[in-house]
Amino acid sequence: MLTDLYTQRALIWAFANRDFKTRYRASLLGWGWSLLQPLATLVVFAAVFSMVFRVQAPPLGNGEGTSYAAFLFTGIVTWNLFSSFLNLSMTQLKASGDLLKKVQFPGWAPVLGASIVQLVQVALEIVVLMGLFVWQRNIGWSWILAIPILIGTALFAQGIGLMLAILNARFGDVQYIVAVVLGALYFLTPILYPISMVQGHNVLLSAVVKINPMSWFVQSMHDVMYSLTAPTWWVIPGLLIGGFVTFWIGFAVFNRASEDLGEYL
Amino acid sequence: MSTLGKADLAVSISEVGKRFKRHTDRRGSLKELIVRGRAKNEEDFWAVRDVSIDIPKGSVYGLIGHNGSGKSTLLKMIGGIYRPTTGSITTDGRVAALIELGAGFHPDMSGRENIQLNGSLLGMSRKEINAVTEEIIDFSGLSEFINEPVKHYSSGMYVRLGFAVAVHMKPDVLLVDEVLAVGDEEFQRKCFDHLYALRKAGKTIIVVSHGLGQLEGLCDEVAWLEHGQLQQAGNTTDTIAAYLHRVNRDEAARNPNITATRPEDDRAGNGVVRVTKAEIVSAAGEPINHAETGATFNLRVGFDVSESILGPNLRIALQHDTGPLVSMISNHAVGYDFGTIEGEQLVDVAIEGNPLLPGRYRVHIDVFDYTGSTLLDTWNDAMEFPVRSQSGEIGQGFVQLPARFTRH
Known about the structure:
The structure holds two protein chains of two kinds. Chain A is mainly α.
């Protein structure tokens, strides 16, 4: 797998370059648009959930009270990384169908290229998030741990994205099912609420939240960015390994199932 | 069949078949899978079947056949875009497929940026691309516009850039699918020059084309496919001739033979002679629906003579359908005398080694008396018949004169 990725690096890069250059080429705000959507979500959700539903965020790591907006945005950034990789993988492979009929190249190359460009967006969101925390004087060394967590999240999301992309290429319904499942999963991940709110309330609900892998990624980000603590020692290595294994499986499944890709896309 | 060793082959195609599933319903929905189960409304369709071809290194190899004969599918399998269902294809060296020029160009990116993208798609490394970028721009002749987005390019410019990238990736085997028919005359010539240069450099070129004349000049060998099966392979001239023979025969089966019977009310002259029938027949006297350049055929004319007359003068005018009179054939001119005749007559006029070039020809028939001055009958637009090529060569002008060259 690694040698495949290495030999095709020029192609992956060329696709990334294409997507980067053309993404907002004809728009006025350019990359500003990419921040507008998560910020709008943040404002609406922060208002609704903190004022209407009165959700209480856990205390900030610096011990100076709580910030629901900062808590929420940490979760949204992590979740967006996951969900955007899934959606982009599916649409990107479909969009490459015509090309795959004319030129021989691995179908995962444009998918990975699109994900690389998406990482630029994630980085922008992280910068905004850090700005928010700096403004609240909630800064700590634990932030460094966000890097392995995000790498784990990206690998995990890409592994699932590759599998969904190849499935969606065969069965066009998959993208709609994914949209529904992602919608539900969003609420089963501690993004809008701290995980403590479901623990002890409903055994089934708390079990579902607990098995949901995204809960682990989001919760870890909450720990290191918001609470300024490190999760239990095995969590981050676990997320990295889990992410890598998922990517490896996704890559293998994709390669296996994509042998006649040019014919049915 | 071939005495060449494996090492001398650029491409070895052995018993290759490609099966496509024909979907009778909208494909790729989960509902279809769940409701009907798998493979129920799928029919198999073999686009290519049991094809074995050896293509020697450094040769130019042509693939011919009707639309849907499987030649493009075969080319895509050589290029690795499709996988063979049965059999195997081995290729030696880097393969570049010019299935569609400029595939993957992004309209919003500049020509230069697209060279990068297209080059990587074709399998070049960044270093290789950077090394030839200026050469590509130069070859395409687009240096003025190279930093403009390609959406502002004309289709010709688009193709020029695509061709320039593809040939500069230094392929060992170049696959060309009908792409040479684009671009202006000057660029086409440049492309051909480049193909010849590649061939000289020992590269292998595989061409799919309907331009048989073009192929005849370019190819060392040709394979002819029909319904996915190999009909004949080898010598270019023989294979193209066999293919054209089949095409002509199939068309003969579909098209009625050229024969005209004169309507009763169409009368001219004094009524002593009346031309009644005109047709074209083969050298062997079989009715045919077209004549072929270089092959003897007969113009057959039937006429009635009501009273005994001295040998008349039969004149057959051949007019090209664009207007010009190509030839006036007359029995007096070639020294043939009918003698004294009466009653129903049937005359064959053999056009030896038919010098007429491909096109449509209209036939007018006049009959004069033995002096050649009194018109006895005339039938304008008696019939029209096509002349087709045997070799794919169209030629210029109306006739191929029997010319002989001598060098002093």
